[in-house]
Design a protein that fits this description.
Elements: H1 18-29, E1 35-36, H2 48-59, H3 72-86, E2 95-98, H4 101-112, E3 118-123, H5 128-135, E4 139-144, H6 155-161, E5 166-172, H7 184-197, E6 200-204, H8 225-229, E7 231-236, E8 249-252, H9 255-268, H10 274-285, H11 289-310, E9 316-318, E10 325-329, E11 337-338, E12 341-342, H12 346-357, E13 359-360, E14 362-363, E15 372-376, H13 381-396
Helix pairs in contact: 2-10, 3-10, 4-5, 4-9, 6-7, 11-13
Length: 399
């Protein structure tokens, strides 16, 4: 028999956090008091008017297939969203609705990458980016983003990383895992380099509406018509509208790219859930008062978690301007012991912390940030306070 598993699957790296995540869940199920900073979704329910729109769609029998690219009224609503929020003009034919933003990212990479194409990924990065690139035949090339620059790369760094084989830059602002948000000036400088090199940009803007400190996100596609023709912008309703389980993401792309993605998706998955699409029309077409209230709650939690981290000797945090994550820099603790266990790296830190204090974090090595662990503040004030108190106690006991 030939190989049972396709060789392309060997390109996918196993999750380094799976064991810790599974252990935390098992501890919770056993009744232990675990505080989890690992969650990557809002702890709010979907706004009620969006839920009601889904119920109405069910009652009206909207339970059939839709066009593979998505319902036309939804694609029109997405075009209106891009015009209102980002100053971008798109036609419905340039919009593809998929089963979550992750699906949109895969579709985009699958459509534009050839075997051996290089894809520049700033690190720290969302852990799925390099895996998608590798499955689609690309080669990840990393830019090291310094904490002194709030984990943001510069146009100069990008220019140095580009080679004749570079096809794509993956650009994420606001960022998971760092919360970094690039200014308009920074985005325009990056766009200029991309235009000169004529490389595509996959701009992941899923956390767009979760920004703080008066910082405003700026879409790289808005820099120029040339940049727009080189940009695939990915967004969705999971984070900003507390709709993670509804599985609706979307992208806007140049017409030839959008056509290719639509053709591929029609064979891969047909369409995104019809009921979720109707709910998304309501989400994008309604006032955003509830979304703004959620953003304000996250902002208060952000201030709280930063204040508590500042009170812990031996660690530091880089203040995030967006999303709902903080990168906790713990590299200065490596080599210390907790009992007879050595904190060798971020995996060991997370594993020993979970055993000792029942606090779950995500090792930064999974994000290309080996000196960090990621903390989400998409959890209650009480859990944030309790979790940081436990981390402080843990750190104080390292010798």
């Amino acid at each position: 028999m030939k190989n049972r598993i396709a060789s392309r699957m060997k390109a996918i790296s196993p999750s380094l956090t799976l064991a810790i995540s599974a252990k935390a869940k098992a501890m919770k199920q056993a009744g232990e008091s675990v505080v989890s900073f690992g969650v990557g979704e809002p702890d709010f329910n979907t706004p009620q008017h969006i839920i009601e729109a889904a119920k109405a769609a069910l009652d009206k029998g909207h339970t059939k297939y839709t066009p593979s690219s998505g319902l036309l009224p939804l694609r029109k609503a997405i075009c209106e969203k891009f015009k209102k929020d980002n100053g971008l003009d798109y036609e419905p034919s340039q919009i593809i609705v998929s089963n979550g933003a992750k699906h949109s990212i895969f579709n985009a990479c699958y459509a534009v990458l050839e075997e051996g194409d290089e894809v520049i990924i700033p690190a720290p990065y969302w852990l799925t980016y390099p895996e998608v690139v590798k499955v689609c035949g690309g080669t990840p090339v990393y830019i090291d983003c310094k904490k002194e620059n709030k984990f943001k790369f510069t146009a100069e760094q990008l220019k140095e990383a580009i080679t004749p084989n570079t096809k794509l830059l993956i650009f994420n602002s606001p960022s998971n895992p760092t919360g970094a948000v690039y200014t308009e000036e920074e985005v325009r400088a990056i766009a200029k380099v991309c235009e000169e090199a004529e490389i595509f940009v996959l701009s992941d803007e899923i956390y767009e509406k979760l920004c703080y400190n008066g910082v405003k996100p700026f879409s790289i596609a808005a820099c120029s018509e040339k940049m727009k023709d080189l940009t695939i912008t990915v967004n969705g309703v999971s984070k900003s509208y507390a709709m993670t389980g509804w599985r609706v993401g979307y992208l806007a792309a140049p017409k030839d790219v959008a056509k290719a993605i639509d053709s591929f998706q029609s064979h891969a998955t047909s369409n995104a859930c019809s009921i979720s699409q109707h709910a998304t029309i309501e989400a994008l077409s309604s006032p955003e008062a509830e979304i703004e209230e959620m953003r304000k709650v996250f902002d208060k939690r952000r201030a709280k978690i930063l204040s508590l981290i500042a009170d812990i000797d031996g660690v530091e945090a880089v203040e995030p301007d967006g999303a709902f994550y903080v990168m906790l820099v713990v590299g200065g603790l490596y080599g210390k012991k907790y009992g007879d266990k050595v904190v060798e790296d971020s995996i060991a830190f997370a594993d020993i912390l979970l055993d000792a204090e029942k606090v779950a974090t995500v090792p930064g090595i999974s994000f290309g940030a080996p000196d960090c662990v990621r903390l989400s503040y998409a959890l209650s004030d009480a859990d944030i306070e309790e979790g940081l108190a436990r981390i402080k106690r843990f750190v104080s006991e390292l010798k």
